[in-house]
Write a structure and sequence with these properties.
Elements (H helix, E strand, L loop, with lengths): L1 E6 L11 H8 L4 E6 L19 E2 L9 E2 L1 H11 L5 E11 L2 H7 L4 E5 L9 H8 L3 E6 L9 H12 L9 H6 L17 E2 L2 E2 L9 H19 L9
Parallel strand pairs: 1-2, 1-6, 5-6, 5-7
Antiparallel strand pairs: 3-4, 8-9
Bound molecules: 6-chloroguanine (6GU).
Amino acid sequence: MRIDVITIFPEFFGVLDVSLLGKARESALVETQVHDLRESATVKADGSPDVHRTVDDAPFGGGAGMVMKADVWGKAIDRVLMPLGVLVIPSPAGVPFTQSLAAELSHAPQLVFACGRYEGIDARVAEHYADQGYRVLEVSLGDYVLNGGEVAAFAIIEAVTRLIPGFMGNAQSIVEESHADGLLEYPSYTRPASWRGIDVPEVLLSGHHARISEWRRAQQLARTRALRPDLLPPED
Ligand code: 6GU
């Protein structure tokens, strides 16, 4: 998979070099390239040089904050977006990012992340690339507001790349983890069997695999009912 990130904070993505994602890049499963949006802001819309490399302007219709310029974003995206690439625009006004969306995106040949400030990118950018036949996704991490799309883009990159076949050491741990089956994960324990007066549940020491599976399923349901009832199918 090829991943391109366009941002006014390219230094932020130094974090891509560490951890498992760094290993995936070394093994060439994932190739990431980070681009400074301001390199597409050296010429104004009228063709004259922009020494200030302006990326935003006041919103038409008035209101607080600034909006990122369509001409600057269009240039930056045109430089990197490939024919089968998916344009991902992190935004608190987007569709919720979920495990199933992550799984879908793990099959894309290219993801291009357009990281804007939270007031947003001129809406014609998403419209234009959708009109051109590209898959364009405005994606939100949840119902709260971040200053910009960078943290969200990194979260999405991590969730997507770990699903690429060959990325994780243990494929079974992906099958069993939280959200893979729509429920929260069961609690896990390791040695010692007793710690600060708290004992590991007896059944896990029994070696009885059927009873262990049953217990884990019951824990998943209890935990989901207590913490995330919205994930359960409606009761009738
Ligand atoms: Cl994707 N972007 C921003 N700016 N804020 C968010 C978000 C994204 N998801 C939740 N809050």
